[in-house]
UniProtKB/TrEMBL annotation:
Residues 136-158 are annotated as: Disordered. Residues 141-155 have a biased composition (Pro residues). Keywords: Hydrolase, Signal. One of its GO terms (molecular function) is polysaccharide binding. PANTHER family: GLUCOSYLCERAMIDASE, GLUCURONOXYLANASE XYNC. This is O-glycosyl hydrolase. The keyword Zinc-finger does not apply. It comes from the Bacteria. GO terms for cellular component: membrane. SUPFAM superfamilies: (Trans)glycosidases, Carbohydrate-binding domain, Glycosyl hydrolase domain. Residues 28-137 form the CBM2 domain. PROSITE patterns: CBM2, PROKAR_LIPOPROTEIN.
Length: 566
């Protein structure tokens, strides 16, 4: 179980990478040993850092492992996860946990740790595994009885199991994201960089959702995090959502329990939204999308406001043009209820004042609306799923969220969260935005002792979500594909953009799909395969390329991304 990191993250530095080939000592009778180690500092602050270590076994299967290295600048390990780490002076040993000692040929295992550091933090110069130092190649442990044959540089071509059809195009992807805290608190600089960055140990979110407080004095709270997101990510969009207008403008004279916006305050509310956008713009934070209302159909005992679809239509038709330097969104109903958006889409004047259709995932699948929104597509309005929060694996709550290999957490992540991301893409939706990015059940931990997470440290759900967010970038377009019988257990979507073909592959079955052949539309110059499973966090996997085909293996109960550069 990952233990809580007690050092707070204050700022982040650049990503440090080091790779080394490492010989592995194997049991007697083994034929060959070898592996590669990738060491990455995922975040760094004054006096401390987080690091990830990934070991790929290139030799015969391992039943246990011990990775050793020496720090060269006085660094000290303070906490660790997915391994038991001990240190004597500058020498460090990381031994497998009870659940990840077995590593098959060409498979990887990863672990991470937090450490303290001085003014410099260089990567270790070399590694060893099970007592054998780096050799740079796979080494026979017994002499071969016959001279080895030279393998072909590329595998023979064959019938494809997944064929990408770039001629058939679907939606353009706007991105994948999560929300900042809505009531109090903000992400630190380091936390924001972990969430939106594209480096090792970062999650690649491309949309950040934030709230518009009815009190303008609260607007500065999120400025630093939003500025960091804009500067640290790649094409990050900001979505701003109001939960309520000021109490005095509402029929119930309260911020909470719903209540409608009085019609004679419609122009004031438009001015309020515009003032927020211009304030943020002046702070160096352009607001790309501004929602008219979060959940107009939900009236809880916290900030909320009630609208009908007709009232929303009237507001955006008559007042929408007053909100400048942004694009409006209607209407973020709880379950993508079309009655809150159809009136605007059916009114040309109102429709011209909006840029996006929004809705939440709560109950949407059960209502039969996790599917293409035909009216929005006909009117060229991108559909964003702007909120979902689901965490039932813990029952009444427990520290399972801090255990990166907990079975219940992984099952819920794969079967509920990632499945709905996949289905939303198949539904031609243009964006998928989770609830809070920082929470014990979310993408990075919040440090709550009761749930066992470490503040700012990526969680299993974050690594899984990054399989979409980090590699399917804004502007990519989903394209068609066909699958063979062999690939039928896999749930796959394909995208093109940036000179790449990218496939996201869910294998929710209990069986691996080995040596699956992927057929790309063009010759492949480079193939990358990254995998997240119960025991792996976005770990690189081996690939074999032959012309426009690449061969990969997909473990059971996993999500992975294959990036093909043309």
């Amino acid at each position: 179980m990952r233990t809580r990191v007690t050092t707070a993250l204050a700022s982040a530095a650049g990503v440090l990478l080091a790779s080394a080939a490492v010989a592995v000592a194997l049991p007697a009778g083994a034929a060959a040993a070898g592996c590669s180690v990738k060491y990455a500092v995922s975040s760094q602050w004054q006096g401390g850092f987080n690091a990830d270590v990934a070991v790929t076994n290139l030799g015969d299967p391992l039943t246990s492992w011990a990775v050793t290295w020496t720090f060269g600048a006085g660094q000290t390990v303070t906490q660790a996860w997915n391994a038991t780490v001990t240190q004597s002076g500058s020498a460090v040993t990381a031994r497998n946990a009870s659940y990840n000692g077995s590593v098959a040929t060409n498979q990887s295992v990863s672990f991470g740790f937090s450490g303290s550091s001085g003014s410099t933090n260089p990567a270790p110069a070399s590694f060893a595994v099970n007592g054998v130092t780096c050799t740079g190649a796979t080494t026979p442990t017994t002499p071969p009885t016959t001279p080895p044959t030279t393998p072909p540089t590329t595998p023979p071509s064959g019938a494809a199991d997944i064929t990408v059809n770039a001629a058939t195009k679907y939606q353009t992807v706007d991105g994948f994201g999560a929300a900042t805290p809505i009531w109090g608190g903000a992400w630190s600089t380091a936390e924001t960089q972990t969430l939106v960055g594209l480096g090792a140990g970062q999650l690649g979110l491309s949309i950040v959702r934030t709230g518009i407080s009815p009190v303008s004095g609260e607007w500065p709270t999120q400025v630093n995090a939003l500025k960091t997101a804009k500067s640290s990510g790649s094409g990050v969009k900001i979505l701003a959502s109001p939960w309520t207008a000021p109490a005095a403008w509402k029929t119930n004279n309260s911020r909470v329990n719903g209540g409608k916006l009085k019609t004679d305050y419609y122009d004031d509310y438009a001015g309020h939204l515009n003032s927020y956008v211009q304030y943020m713009r002046g702070q160096g934070v352009p607001i790309d999308v501004t929602s008219v209302q979060n959940e107009p159909d939900w009236h809880p005992d916290y900030d909320s406001m009630d609208w009908s679809g007709t009232e929303l239509r009237t507001f955006v038709r008559d007042q929408g043009a007053k909100v400048q330097n942004t694009k409006l969104m209607v209407a973020e109903a709880v379950n993508m209820n079309y009655s809150y958006t159809d009136p605007t889409l059916n009114d040309a004047s109102a429709r011209n004042n909006i840029g996006y259709i929004g809705g939440h995932l709560y109950g949407t699948e059960d209502s039969g609306r996790l599917k293409p929104y035909t009216l929005a597509e006909q009117n060229n309005k991108p559909v964003w799923m702007t909120e979902w929060n689901f965490h039932e694996a813990d029952g009444n709550g427990s520290t399972i969220w801090g255990n990166p290999s907990n079975q219940a957490v992984w099952d819920e992540t794969l079967d509920d969260i990632m499945r709905t991301v996949h289905k939303s893409m198949e539904a031609n939706w243009n964006a998928y935005i989770w609830w809070y990015g920082k929470r014990y059940y979310s993408f990075i931990g919040d440090g709550e002792a009761a749930y066992g997470t470490s503040a700012g440290v990526p969680l299993k759900r974050g690594y899984a979500f990054s399989q979409f967010a980090k590699y399917v970038r804004p502007g990519y377009q989903r394209v068609a594909l066909a699958k063979s019988t062999k690939a039928s257990p896999l749930e796959v979507t394909a995208y093109q953009g940036g000179g790449k073909t990218t496939l996201v592959v869910l294998n929710r079955s209990n069986s691996a799909v080995s040596n699956a052949v992927l057929q790309a539309p063009q010759t492949i110059t480079r193939a990358e395969h990254y995998l997240t499973s119960r025991t792996d966090n976005a770990v690189a996997q081996p690939t074999s390329v032959n012309g426009s085909q690449v061969t990969v293996s997909v473990p059971a109960r996993s999500i992975s991304t294959v990036v093909l550069t043309h």
